[in-house]
Amino acid sequence: MATYIVLLGPPGVGKGTQAVVLAQATSLVHISSGDLFRVNIKNQTELGKLAKSYMDKGELVPDDVTIAMIRDRISQPDCKAGVIFDGFPRTPKQAQALEKMLGELGGHVDVVPYITADEQVLIERTGGRWSCRAQGHVYHEKFNPPKEAGVCDVDGSVLYQRDDDKKETVANRIHVYFEQTMPLVDYYHKAGKLIEIDGAKSMEQVTSDLLAALKK
Ligand code: ADP
Ligand code: ADP
Description:
Blueprint: E1 3-7, H1 15-25, E2 29-32, H2 33-42, H3 46-55, H4 63-74, E3 82-86, H5 92-104, E4 112-116, H6 119-127, E5 129-132, E6 138-140, E7 159-160, H7 167-181, H8 183-190, E8 194-198, H9 203-215
Parallel strand pairs: 1-3, 2-3, 4-8
Antiparallel strand pairs: 5-6, 5-7
Helix pairs in contact: 1-9, 2-3, 4-5, 6-7
The protein binds adenosine-5'-diphosphate (2 copies).
């Protein structure tokens, strides 16, 4: 049966970074809702234009649009063995829709690693984040610098700083996280699926804590 993992946690805590490593260590596909929106923005699709108007303000893209995008993605053949969700679900409505969609595929959310860190850590991480234009590989100017400044190690493309990683926008994203996404912590805790992971540790330490927790 397919395995479905939901990585939960505030903006900048390291969900994407860990999802990449976990996907390499398993046969699961990494799906990042933020990356899907950014690809649509790059390709100037209607969905991209709509998403950008919310993302620039640090607000959530409406549920129906986000859910439809994820439904489309998880029905693709590469998701057969399972998925690591990064950044989705972010609201109770999205979580309910996910249960329904996975149910139709004969599965359910298996486990929800909840990665935490305090606000100062999130601000420092988003403030130094650099992403690659081509495929969204992620670096940090202090904690995970590329070999050559401004250039992606993997595909050689240009690195840029996300518009929504500006200080004011990050503050709003953290606020939105507490208001709209925090209820999911309780939701998955009650379902017996939550495992708390200290995201303030080094990348390698967080990875080994995650792998140890997932083994159980
Ligand atoms: P981070 O990884 O720093 O938390 P993301 O790349 O996940 O940031 O998200 C960037 C933006 O994309 C969010 O601020 C929001 O506007 C939009 N977004 C991403 N995922 C969702 C989602 N599940 N529901 C609504 N909006 C989303
Ligand atoms: P999220 O997907 O949760 O928004 P990212 O994985 O994009 O978070 O990480 C945010 C920034 O912090 C990136 O620049 C990344 O390189 C860096 N980072 C991620 N995990 C750690 C860690 N454990 N220690 C230090 N920096 C980290």
